[in-house]
Structure prediction request, 350 residues.
Amino acid sequence: MLALVALLLSACSPDSSNALASGPKTVATPAISPTLQNEGQMALQTFEQWINLMQQNGGDVTTYRQQYQSDQQALQQAQTASAYNQALATLKEHIRAIQLPAMKAESSHLQQQLAQEVSAWGQTHTYHDSYNNQTYPLGYEYGSQGIGGNDWLGEELSQAQTLADYQQVVEDLQMWLTNFEAMKANFSDKTPYNQPHKTDLDLMRHYGYMGERVVVVSLSEQALRAYDHGKLVKAFLVTTGQPDLPTPPGTWWIEGKQHPTIFKSSEPKGSPHWYPDTKINYAMQYHSNGYFLHDAWWRADFGPGTNFPHQDPTGDPFAGQGSHGCVNMSTDNAAWLYNFVSLYTPVLIY
Prediction:
């Protein structure tokens, strides 16, 4: 009898194993992996760096600071991997959005810095030309008539649209500021032009040119020095661009060589910058738009002051002023240089 009751009770009792299988389940919250968390922290750091860059260059970062705080809070409060990824996607979009304004701010700040430094230095460092009784600011190659003006920096800025474009503008401005500082330092260096100069070597190290042949043009000295693996090989005097048509400072390279060739003026006859078709024996292009290292056989004098109006012993009116932006030299020196350089040889002008 007891056995029968036990059997009946057992039959009426629910099966515990079946109840566990068919009852409601508790789903565990997916963990946010350390890898994903690290990606979020790195993204926050990147956003902060862009904000700091923009602020350092005078940009308004109020909105971006608010976005940063919101993104940081969203990552901290995310309970699932899905929510974290969503917050991270928003953060990355904010990073993309700040990059172009930040680069524009940096470009504008560096542009102002270059203009201010060139103007200030030119006011206290001048060249008085006794030939025409005019005084010219030195370093004009970096100013409004040179690479800091509309034909160079202005055009580059007007054409800039993408992040890469503005990154190139920033790199160029940093290069010009670096070379301008070297020019100022070299101005007070009394080392003869035909000996190695500290500023030459400093710039060559800065740009990584110590392991190759390099042509260095010193605008303040009106001199060219050729180096091979950091050793001075040859030096001679040159004539660079006149104040209205400066030689562009920067780090360029030999883009092509011609021996001989004919130069034709891009200006109409009657223009003060027009010149007749001219045979050039040795021409080495270092920048597009017609910038060359070349012989100027019509000149007798080269060196300091020849980039300003003067009386050349030849009496040739085209020899009584600086070049149109090229670097002029004697025919013998041009022939030597033509054989020294090859395609892509760096040309450092400061």
In short: The chain has nine helices and 13 strands. Confidence is low (pLDDT under 50) at residues 1-29. The longest strand covers residues 231-237.
